[in-house]
């Protein structure tokens, strides 16, 4: 007997995959387990995603978009361009409020497993280019020190973020409080050393 059609099948599969990754980790998740949990055939999963890595990529891209929307909401009261420290502070809060993204930061081996090695570097490069362009916009608006090198700032902040992604594997599991504190230090350094003008971070 054919399985009933599921409305918004792709979104349903992404929801199920995200839950399974959080519950079991990427390495233990399978296309079959996603199919069973979603109530669709395994072939139905493969019609949407070519494989396990492609499925998790889609989950992570959706989570990244979710983070961006949250950052936009937290900084919506600020006139553009949003100060760099405010963006960073909003990013911390958005990250820690998102179970998948914060889990990836806090324990990437248990959650993302082997997928960590398969992530396309272009994802980091795109982020690097976006930060560079935003700092250039802030400098043109007089919102950062005039001697600031946008590319150098972007490289420094990108390196910190990538380093924190790897920290749990190198120095042991991190707690959410440790992550918040570490990112808070970076936000403070940006506010004091790069931003120009009064503190305009996100509202408490």
Jot down its keywords:
mainly alpha, 68% helix, elongated
Share of helical residues: 55-70%
SSE string, helices as H and strands as E: HHHHHHHHHH
Beta-strand portion reads under 5%
Number of helices: 10
Show unreliable segments: 199-204
Q: Mean pLDDT, nearest integer? A: 85
Q: What structural class do you assign from the helix and strand content?
A: mainly alpha
Distance between the termini: 54 Å
Tell me the total number of β-strands.
0
**Biggest sheet descriptor:** none
- Shape category: elongated
Cα Rg: 19 Å
How does this structure look, described?
With 204 residues, the chain is mainly α. The chain has helices at 9-24, 31-38, 42-48, 52-74, 84-97, 99-106, 108-111, 122-140, 150-171, 176-193. Helix 1 packs across helix 4 (52-74) and helix 2 crosses helix 3. The longest helix has 23 residues, at 52-74. Residues 199-204 have low confidence and may be disordered.
Helix-strand layout with pairing:
Layout: H1 9-24, H2 31-38, H3 42-48, H4 52-74, H5 84-97, H6 99-106, H7 108-111, H8 122-140, H9 150-171, H10 176-193
Helix pairs in contact: 1-2, 1-4, 2-3, 4-5, 5-10, 8-9
